[in-house]
UniProtKB/TrEMBL annotation:
Keyword Lyase: yes
Disordered: annotated span: 1-26
Cofactor(s) essential for the protein: pyridoxal 5'-phosphate
Lineage: Bacteria, Bacillati, Actinomycetota, Actinomycetes, Kitasatosporales
NCBIfam families, A to Z: PRK07582.1 (NF005758)
EC category: lyase
Protein name: Cystathionine gamma-lyase
GO molecular function per UniProt: lyase activity
Keywords: Lyase, Pyridoxal phosphate
Length: 391
Protein backbone atom coordinates (compact mmCIF):
# COMPACT_ATOMS: atom_id res chain seq x y z
CA UNK A 1 0.00 0.00 0.00
CA UNK A 2 2.95 2.37 0.44
CA UNK A 3 3.12 3.00 -3.31
CA UNK A 4 -0.64 3.34 -3.83
CA UNK A 5 -2.43 6.64 -4.36
CA UNK A 6 -4.10 8.47 -1.50
CA UNK A 7 -7.58 7.36 -2.45
CA UNK A 8 -6.58 3.71 -2.60
CA UNK A 9 -4.76 3.97 0.72
CA UNK A 10 -7.76 5.57 2.39
CA UNK A 11 -10.17 2.92 1.09
CA UNK A 12 -7.97 -0.05 2.04
CA UNK A 13 -6.18 1.23 5.15
CA UNK A 14 -6.32 -1.04 8.18
CA UNK A 15 -8.48 -3.76 6.65
CA UNK A 16 -7.80 -7.36 7.74
CA UNK A 17 -6.84 -10.10 5.34
CA UNK A 18 -10.02 -11.20 3.52
CA UNK A 19 -11.73 -14.33 4.81
CA UNK A 20 -14.59 -16.13 3.08
CA UNK A 21 -17.94 -15.11 4.49
CA UNK A 22 -16.51 -12.33 6.67
CA UNK A 23 -17.16 -8.58 6.25
CA UNK A 24 -14.41 -6.43 4.75
CA UNK A 25 -14.48 -4.27 7.89
CA UNK A 26 -15.48 -6.35 10.93
CA UNK A 27 -18.04 -4.79 13.22
CA UNK A 28 -17.15 -3.15 16.55
CA UNK A 29 -15.98 -5.43 19.36
CA UNK A 30 -17.83 -4.62 22.58
CA UNK A 31 -15.88 -6.19 25.41
CA UNK A 32 -14.69 -5.20 28.86
CA UNK A 33 -12.77 -8.46 29.27
CA UNK A 34 -11.67 -11.40 27.13
CA UNK A 35 -11.68 -15.14 27.74
CA UNK A 36 -8.26 -16.23 29.06
CA UNK A 37 -8.52 -19.83 30.35
CA UNK A 38 -5.70 -21.24 32.44
CA UNK A 39 -2.42 -19.50 31.71
CA UNK A 40 -3.51 -18.42 28.24
CA UNK A 41 -2.34 -15.05 27.04
CA UNK A 42 -3.25 -13.01 23.99
CA UNK A 43 -3.29 -9.57 22.45
CA UNK A 44 -6.51 -8.64 24.26
CA UNK A 45 -6.99 -9.07 28.00
CA UNK A 46 -8.92 -6.11 29.38
CA UNK A 47 -10.96 -3.37 27.71
CA UNK A 48 -8.95 -0.42 29.01
CA UNK A 49 -5.75 -1.73 27.45
CA UNK A 50 -6.68 -2.82 23.94
CA UNK A 51 -9.58 -3.59 21.66
CA UNK A 52 -9.55 -5.18 18.19
CA UNK A 53 -11.63 -2.32 16.78
CA UNK A 54 -9.08 0.23 17.99
CA UNK A 55 -6.30 -1.92 16.57
CA UNK A 56 -7.83 -1.83 13.09
CA UNK A 57 -8.41 1.93 13.20
CA UNK A 58 -4.92 2.60 14.54
CA UNK A 59 -3.42 0.47 11.80
CA UNK A 60 -5.31 2.52 9.22
CA UNK A 61 -4.26 5.84 10.74
CA UNK A 62 -0.66 4.70 10.92
CA UNK A 63 -0.71 3.83 7.22
CA UNK A 64 -2.12 7.24 6.29
CA UNK A 65 0.40 9.14 8.45
CA UNK A 66 3.45 7.19 7.21
CA UNK A 67 5.88 9.32 5.17
CA UNK A 68 6.61 8.21 1.63
CA UNK A 69 9.70 6.04 1.58
CA UNK A 70 9.92 5.87 5.38
CA UNK A 71 10.72 2.13 5.41
CA UNK A 72 8.55 1.66 8.51
CA UNK A 73 4.92 2.30 9.28
CA UNK A 74 3.86 4.99 11.70
CA UNK A 75 2.25 3.87 14.96
CA UNK A 76 -1.04 5.48 15.97
CA UNK A 77 -2.84 5.62 19.32
CA UNK A 78 -6.53 6.53 19.36
CA UNK A 79 -8.28 8.62 22.02
CA UNK A 80 -11.87 9.63 22.78
CA UNK A 81 -11.29 13.24 21.63
CA UNK A 82 -8.70 15.50 20.11
CA UNK A 83 -7.99 17.17 23.44
CA UNK A 84 -7.38 13.77 25.03
CA UNK A 85 -4.73 13.18 22.37
CA UNK A 86 -3.20 16.64 22.91
CA UNK A 87 -3.01 16.12 26.67
CA UNK A 88 -1.55 12.63 26.25
CA UNK A 89 1.46 14.03 24.40
CA UNK A 90 2.00 17.08 26.60
CA UNK A 91 1.41 15.45 29.99
CA UNK A 92 3.26 12.23 29.28
CA UNK A 93 6.39 14.15 28.19
CA UNK A 94 6.71 17.30 30.26
CA UNK A 95 8.13 17.40 33.78
CA UNK A 96 8.72 20.20 36.31
CA UNK A 97 11.58 22.35 35.10
CA UNK A 98 10.96 21.60 31.43
CA UNK A 99 9.84 24.29 29.01
CA UNK A 100 7.32 24.05 26.20
CA UNK A 101 6.62 26.38 23.28
CA UNK A 102 2.96 26.59 22.25
CA UNK A 103 1.13 28.70 19.65
CA UNK A 104 -0.49 31.87 20.96
CA UNK A 105 -3.12 31.70 18.20
CA UNK A 106 -4.04 28.02 18.29
CA UNK A 107 -7.10 26.10 19.41
CA UNK A 108 -9.08 27.87 22.12
CA UNK A 109 -8.41 25.26 24.84
CA UNK A 110 -4.63 25.68 24.59
CA UNK A 111 -4.66 28.57 27.12
CA UNK A 112 -6.25 26.20 29.65
CA UNK A 113 -3.52 23.66 28.89
CA UNK A 114 -0.89 26.35 29.36
CA UNK A 115 -2.29 27.13 32.81
CA UNK A 116 -2.30 23.45 33.74
CA UNK A 117 1.31 22.99 32.63
CA UNK A 118 2.41 26.10 34.48
CA UNK A 119 0.80 24.71 37.64
CA UNK A 120 2.90 21.57 37.23
CA UNK A 121 6.10 23.63 37.09
CA UNK A 122 6.51 23.62 33.31
CA UNK A 123 7.72 26.86 31.77
CA UNK A 124 5.33 27.78 28.96
CA UNK A 125 6.37 30.10 26.16
CA UNK A 126 4.02 31.23 23.40
CA UNK A 127 4.43 32.68 19.94
CA UNK A 128 2.19 33.22 16.90
CA UNK A 129 2.11 30.56 14.21
CA UNK A 130 3.32 32.71 11.34
CA UNK A 131 6.85 34.06 11.21
CA UNK A 132 10.01 33.28 13.14
CA UNK A 133 8.92 34.02 16.70
CA UNK A 134 9.03 30.34 17.71
CA UNK A 135 12.69 30.11 16.75
CA UNK A 136 13.68 32.77 19.27
CA UNK A 137 12.04 30.78 22.08
CA UNK A 138 13.96 27.54 21.50
CA UNK A 139 16.77 26.66 23.88
CA UNK A 140 18.09 23.62 25.79
CA UNK A 141 15.29 23.84 28.38
CA UNK A 142 12.60 23.28 25.77
CA UNK A 143 11.33 19.69 25.79
CA UNK A 144 8.36 20.18 23.45
CA UNK A 145 7.59 22.50 20.55
CA UNK A 146 3.87 22.40 19.78
CA UNK A 147 2.78 23.59 16.33
CA UNK A 148 -0.66 23.99 14.79
CA UNK A 149 -0.63 24.42 11.04
CA UNK A 150 -2.93 25.64 9.62
CA UNK A 151 -3.94 27.13 12.96
CA UNK A 152 -7.52 27.36 14.11
CA UNK A 153 -9.30 29.71 13.55
CA UNK A 154 -6.84 32.19 11.99
CA UNK A 155 -5.49 29.80 9.30
CA UNK A 156 -1.88 30.90 9.52
CA UNK A 157 0.75 28.35 8.48
CA UNK A 158 4.26 27.72 9.81
CA UNK A 159 7.26 26.11 8.14
CA UNK A 160 7.15 22.75 9.92
CA UNK A 161 10.37 21.37 8.48
CA UNK A 162 12.41 24.44 9.37
CA UNK A 163 11.02 24.59 12.90
CA UNK A 164 11.48 20.86 13.47
CA UNK A 165 15.12 21.04 12.46
CA UNK A 166 15.70 23.97 14.82
CA UNK A 167 13.91 22.23 17.70
CA UNK A 168 15.87 19.03 17.25
CA UNK A 169 19.14 20.96 17.38
CA UNK A 170 18.35 21.95 20.98
CA UNK A 171 17.02 18.51 21.90
CA UNK A 172 13.30 19.31 21.77
CA UNK A 173 10.55 17.10 20.39
CA UNK A 174 8.02 18.47 17.92
CA UNK A 175 4.27 17.82 17.82
CA UNK A 176 2.01 19.16 15.08
CA UNK A 177 -1.75 19.52 15.39
CA UNK A 178 -2.75 18.36 11.92
CA UNK A 179 -6.51 18.47 12.42
CA UNK A 180 -7.36 20.93 9.70
CA UNK A 181 -5.08 19.47 7.03
CA UNK A 182 -5.71 15.72 7.66
CA UNK A 183 -2.97 13.23 6.71
CA UNK A 184 -4.01 13.53 3.06
CA UNK A 185 -3.35 17.26 3.07
CA UNK A 186 -0.16 17.25 5.13
CA UNK A 187 2.08 14.64 6.75
CA UNK A 188 3.91 16.19 9.69
CA UNK A 189 6.09 13.11 10.22
CA UNK A 190 7.35 13.51 6.66
CA UNK A 191 8.24 17.13 7.48
CA UNK A 192 10.35 16.13 10.49
CA UNK A 193 7.84 16.23 13.37
CA UNK A 194 8.00 13.59 16.08
CA UNK A 195 4.23 13.50 16.63
CA UNK A 196 1.25 14.10 14.37
CA UNK A 197 -1.81 14.83 16.53
CA UNK A 198 -5.37 15.40 15.37
CA UNK A 199 -8.98 15.59 16.34
CA UNK A 200 -10.73 12.88 14.37
CA UNK A 201 -14.01 14.56 15.26
CA UNK A 202 -13.62 16.91 12.33
CA UNK A 203 -12.48 16.42 8.72
CA UNK A 204 -10.90 13.02 9.28
CA UNK A 205 -14.27 11.35 9.91
CA UNK A 206 -16.32 14.10 8.33
CA UNK A 207 -19.89 13.34 9.38
CA UNK A 208 -20.23 15.31 12.60
CA UNK A 209 -21.47 12.29 14.51
CA UNK A 210 -18.56 11.23 16.76
CA UNK A 211 -15.71 12.46 18.93
CA UNK A 212 -12.24 11.02 18.41
CA UNK A 213 -8.55 11.91 18.53
CA UNK A 214 -5.23 10.24 17.80
CA UNK A 215 -1.46 10.55 18.05
CA UNK A 216 0.88 9.12 15.41
CA UNK A 217 4.67 8.73 15.57
CA UNK A 218 7.45 6.76 13.91
CA UNK A 219 9.29 6.28 17.22
CA UNK A 220 8.47 3.11 19.17
CA UNK A 221 9.52 4.66 22.48
CA UNK A 222 7.34 7.74 22.03
CA UNK A 223 4.45 5.51 21.01
CA UNK A 224 4.90 3.43 24.15
CA UNK A 225 4.84 6.53 26.35
CA UNK A 226 1.59 7.82 24.85
CA UNK A 227 0.03 4.36 24.94
CA UNK A 228 1.00 3.98 28.62
CA UNK A 229 -0.60 7.34 29.38
CA UNK A 230 -3.85 6.18 27.77
CA UNK A 231 -3.80 2.99 29.82
CA UNK A 232 -3.12 4.87 33.05
CA UNK A 233 -5.75 7.56 32.57
CA UNK A 234 -8.37 5.37 30.90
CA UNK A 235 -8.71 7.88 28.05
CA UNK A 236 -9.99 5.24 25.64
CA UNK A 237 -12.31 5.56 22.64
CA UNK A 238 -15.56 3.65 22.45
CA UNK A 239 -15.55 0.72 20.00
CA UNK A 240 -18.52 2.11 18.08
CA UNK A 241 -16.78 5.48 17.62
CA UNK A 242 -13.59 3.72 16.50
CA UNK A 243 -15.53 1.59 14.01
CA UNK A 244 -17.45 4.58 12.63
CA UNK A 245 -14.17 6.47 12.23
CA UNK A 246 -12.57 3.60 10.32
CA UNK A 247 -15.62 3.29 8.10
CA UNK A 248 -15.45 7.01 7.32
CA UNK A 249 -11.82 6.89 6.16
CA UNK A 250 -12.88 5.23 2.91
CA UNK A 251 -14.32 8.53 1.65
CA UNK A 252 -11.59 10.75 3.06
CA UNK A 253 -9.94 11.62 -0.24
CA UNK A 254 -13.28 12.28 -1.93
CA UNK A 255 -14.37 14.59 0.86
CA UNK A 256 -11.05 16.39 1.28
CA UNK A 257 -10.69 17.10 -2.43
CA UNK A 258 -14.30 18.21 -2.89
CA UNK A 259 -14.29 20.43 0.16
CA UNK A 260 -10.92 22.02 -0.65
CA UNK A 261 -12.01 22.82 -4.21
CA UNK A 262 -15.24 24.42 -2.99
CA UNK A 263 -13.39 26.31 -0.25
CA UNK A 264 -11.13 27.85 -2.90
CA UNK A 265 -14.16 28.85 -4.95
CA UNK A 266 -15.85 30.38 -1.92
CA UNK A 267 -12.72 32.28 -0.91
CA UNK A 268 -12.39 33.65 -4.44
CA UNK A 269 -16.00 34.84 -4.36
CA UNK A 270 -15.62 36.42 -0.93
CA UNK A 271 -12.57 38.34 -2.10
CA UNK A 272 -14.87 40.38 -4.37
CA UNK A 273 -17.17 41.51 -1.56
CA UNK A 274 -16.47 45.00 -0.18
CA UNK A 275 -17.91 44.23 3.27
CA UNK A 276 -15.61 41.23 3.74
CA UNK A 277 -12.26 41.94 5.40
CA UNK A 278 -9.55 39.73 6.90
CA UNK A 279 -10.24 36.95 4.40
CA UNK A 280 -8.00 33.93 5.01
CA UNK A 281 -7.60 30.69 3.09
CA UNK A 282 -4.14 29.12 2.64
CA UNK A 283 -5.01 27.90 -0.86
CA UNK A 284 -5.83 31.38 -2.12
CA UNK A 285 -3.07 33.11 -4.07
CA UNK A 286 -2.16 36.25 -2.17
CA UNK A 287 -2.98 34.81 1.25
CA UNK A 288 -0.05 35.39 3.65
CA UNK A 289 0.14 31.63 4.33
CA UNK A 290 0.04 30.58 0.68
CA UNK A 291 3.80 30.44 -0.10
CA UNK A 292 4.56 28.08 2.80
CA UNK A 293 1.34 26.10 2.32
CA UNK A 294 2.23 25.42 -1.32
CA UNK A 295 5.57 23.94 -0.25
CA UNK A 296 4.39 21.66 2.52
CA UNK A 297 0.71 20.83 1.96
CA UNK A 298 -0.14 18.09 -0.50
CA UNK A 299 -1.98 18.07 -3.83
CA UNK A 300 -3.72 21.41 -3.36
CA UNK A 301 -5.48 20.18 -0.21
CA UNK A 302 -5.51 23.33 1.87
CA UNK A 303 -8.43 22.40 4.07
CA UNK A 304 -12.13 23.13 4.20
CA UNK A 305 -12.14 26.20 6.45
CA UNK A 306 -12.37 29.79 5.23
CA UNK A 307 -12.31 32.66 7.72
CA UNK A 308 -13.33 36.27 7.24
CA UNK A 309 -14.63 39.31 9.10
CA UNK A 310 -17.95 41.10 8.64
CA UNK A 311 -18.69 44.62 9.96
CA UNK A 312 -19.66 43.82 13.52
CA UNK A 313 -21.63 41.38 15.60
CA UNK A 314 -25.11 42.22 14.31
CA UNK A 315 -24.05 42.15 10.66
CA UNK A 316 -22.40 38.76 11.17
CA UNK A 317 -25.48 37.37 12.88
CA UNK A 318 -27.75 38.58 10.07
CA UNK A 319 -25.49 36.78 7.62
CA UNK A 320 -25.58 33.53 9.59
CA UNK A 321 -29.36 33.69 9.99
CA UNK A 322 -29.85 34.20 6.24
CA UNK A 323 -27.86 31.12 5.18
CA UNK A 324 -30.08 28.34 3.84
CA UNK A 325 -27.60 25.53 3.11
CA UNK A 326 -25.32 26.08 6.10
CA UNK A 327 -25.81 25.01 9.72
CA UNK A 328 -24.97 27.59 12.35
CA UNK A 329 -22.81 25.35 14.51
CA UNK A 330 -19.32 25.03 15.94
CA UNK A 331 -16.67 22.51 14.83
CA UNK A 332 -15.62 22.00 11.20
CA UNK A 333 -14.81 19.41 8.57
CA UNK A 334 -18.23 17.80 8.10
CA UNK A 335 -20.02 17.00 4.86
CA UNK A 336 -22.66 19.59 5.78
CA UNK A 337 -21.35 23.15 5.72
CA UNK A 338 -21.28 25.00 9.03
CA UNK A 339 -20.49 28.55 10.05
CA UNK A 340 -20.24 30.45 13.29
CA UNK A 341 -19.46 33.83 14.74
CA UNK A 342 -16.36 32.66 16.51
CA UNK A 343 -16.21 35.43 19.12
CA UNK A 344 -19.43 34.18 20.75
CA UNK A 345 -17.43 31.46 22.52
CA UNK A 346 -14.56 33.59 23.86
CA UNK A 347 -11.01 32.28 24.02
CA UNK A 348 -9.97 33.47 20.54
CA UNK A 349 -8.47 36.89 19.82
CA UNK A 350 -10.83 37.63 16.93
CA UNK A 351 -13.18 40.55 16.09
CA UNK A 352 -16.89 40.31 16.93
CA UNK A 353 -17.70 39.88 13.24
CA UNK A 354 -15.20 37.06 12.65
CA UNK A 355 -16.76 34.13 10.77
CA UNK A 356 -15.27 30.64 10.71
CA UNK A 357 -16.85 28.90 7.73
CA UNK A 358 -16.47 25.16 7.22
CA UNK A 359 -17.18 24.10 3.65
CA UNK A 360 -19.08 20.85 3.24
CA UNK A 361 -19.75 18.58 0.31
CA UNK A 362 -22.60 20.53 -1.26
CA UNK A 363 -22.33 21.56 -4.91
CA UNK A 364 -19.97 24.51 -5.10
CA UNK A 365 -22.35 26.59 -7.21
CA UNK A 366 -25.18 26.12 -4.72
CA UNK A 367 -23.06 26.90 -1.70
CA UNK A 368 -21.42 30.00 -3.15
CA UNK A 369 -24.80 31.30 -4.33
CA UNK A 370 -26.25 30.77 -0.85
CA UNK A 371 -23.38 32.64 0.80
CA UNK A 372 -23.61 35.56 -1.64
CA UNK A 373 -27.36 35.79 -1.14
CA UNK A 374 -26.92 35.77 2.63
CA UNK A 375 -24.31 38.52 2.36
CA UNK A 376 -26.72 40.59 0.28
CA UNK A 377 -29.47 40.05 2.83
CA UNK A 378 -27.20 40.97 5.73
CA UNK A 379 -26.16 44.16 3.95
CA UNK A 380 -29.83 45.12 3.49
CA UNK A 381 -30.48 44.64 7.16
CA UNK A 382 -31.89 41.10 7.15
CA UNK A 383 -35.06 40.62 5.13
CA UNK A 384 -34.78 37.01 3.97
CA UNK A 385 -37.53 34.57 4.83
CA UNK A 386 -36.68 31.50 6.88
CA UNK A 387 -35.54 28.60 4.74
CA UNK A 388 -37.70 25.46 4.56
CA UNK A 389 -34.51 23.60 5.54
CA UNK A 390 -34.73 25.33 8.93
CA UNK A 391 -38.38 24.56 9.59
Amino acid sequence: MSTAGDGTRAVRAGLPEPRPGEPALPGPAFAAHYWLPGEADGPYTYGREANPTWTALESALGELETPDGAGRTARAVSFPSGMAAVCAVALSLLRPGDAAVLPSDGYQLLPALRELLAGFGVGVRTAPTRGDAQLALLDERVRLLWLESPCNPGLDVCDIRRLAEAAHRVGALVAVDNTLATPLGQRPLELGADFSVASGTKALTGHGDLLLGYVATLDAGLDAGVRSWRRLTGAIPGPMEAWLAHRSLATLQLRVDRQAATARALAAALRERPEVTGLRYPGLAGDPAHPVAVRQMRAGRYGCVVSFVLPGREHAQRFLSALRLVDEATSFGGVRSTAERRARWGGDAVPEGFIRFSVGAEDAEDLVADVLAALDDAARGGTAQASPLRA
